[in-house]
């Protein structure tokens, strides 16, 4: 590409448009006409909306000089999103701390309400049933999603169901290779597109595991291989690489699932909670 050093994503597309194939032009045209919506779409959603295949989109990204679709979205966001909104959407550089607190709290509250409305109680109940039938629970997450996976592990060990938690892709696929029928793997991924995580999930599914996924993109590669897909809404998640609100809403979904399972295993869970409290007590003054 002649103008590859150009950092403006939209300008790159315009400069390259004439040399693109017909299918690639269809995808490129959609980006030019809907730049703000693109940064909120998974590649599966983009393919559906633009009526172009995922393969065509990958090919377009390559011709534009990007490593992949996520790389294109990051560069597109840097073109159309105000720099300060990479910190938090809606924040202004001259906001004082009181206004910052109000904006962050209001935005998080909206995301929590949106998460509750977008997840059917029947799907939550299905997830609870899968957990109750499992001999072991595995919690997989990478990058920022690792902290959510670890928190989920920290909660579910109280149920008495054996648990494993890991953020390393090699360890994850090793655990996935040894699952038993109906064991449950929790997959945490804001984008739903992490290749290493998806490889591990595919391995687990092949060996009989049930997959419960918590993601901000319910139309993503992860969705295609999940038994239950739960949506952790966060309107910032496709703009910032480290999503704040979707992390909060993911934790709330985990809390809901834990309470649902704990009520079905009440005596065992209460016994374990008391054991843990007694053990922790010796660590405190």
From TrEMBL:
The keyword Transcription regulation applies. It holds the Pfam family SIS. It comes from the Bacteria. Residues 7-83 form the HTH rpiR-type domain. One of its GO terms (molecular function) is carbohydrate derivative binding. Gene3D superfamilies: Glucose-6-phosphate isomerase like protein, domain 1, Winged helix-like DNA-binding domain superfamily/Winged helix DNA-binding domain. This is Putative HTH-type transcriptional regulator YbbH. Residues 127-267 form the SIS domain. Keywords: DNA-binding, Transcription, Transcription regulation. GO terms for biological process: carbohydrate derivative metabolic process.
């Amino acid at each position: 590409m002649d103008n590859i050093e150009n950092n403006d994503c939209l300008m790159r597309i315009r400069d390259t448009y004439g040399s693109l194939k017909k299918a690639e032009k269809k995808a490129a045209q959609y980006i030019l006409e809907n730049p703000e919506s693109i940064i909120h779409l998974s590649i599966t959603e983009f393919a559906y909306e633009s009526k172009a295949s995922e393969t065509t989109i990958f090919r377009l990204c390559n011709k534009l000089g990007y490593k992949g679709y996520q790389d294109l979205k990051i560069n597109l966001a840097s073109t159309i999103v105000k720099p300060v909104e990479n910190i938090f959407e809606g924040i202004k550089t001259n906001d004082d701390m009181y206004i910052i607190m109000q904006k962050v709290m209001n935005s998080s509250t909206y995301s929590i309400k949106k998460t509750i409305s977008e997840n059917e109680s029947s799907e939550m109940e299905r997830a609870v049933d899968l957990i109750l039938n499992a001999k072991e629970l595995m919690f997989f997450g990478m990058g920022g999603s690792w902290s959510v996976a670890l928190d989920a592990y920290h909660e579910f060990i109280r149920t008495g169901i054996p648990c494993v938690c890991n953020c390393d892709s090699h360890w994850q696929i090793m655990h996935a290779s040894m699952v038993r029928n109906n064991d449950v793997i929790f997959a945490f991924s804001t984008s739903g597109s992490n290749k290493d995580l998806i490889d591990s999930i595919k391995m687990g599914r092949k060996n009989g595991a049930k997959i419960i996924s918590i993601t901000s993109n319910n139309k993503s590669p992860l969705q295609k291989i999940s038994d239950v897909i739960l949506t952790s809404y966060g309107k910032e998640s496709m703009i910032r690489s480290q999503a704040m609100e979707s992390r909060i809403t993911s934790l709330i979904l985990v809390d809901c699932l834990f309470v649902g399972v704990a009520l079905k295993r009440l005596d065992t869970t209460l016994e374990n909670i008391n054991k843990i409290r007694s053990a922790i007590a010796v660590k405190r003054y």
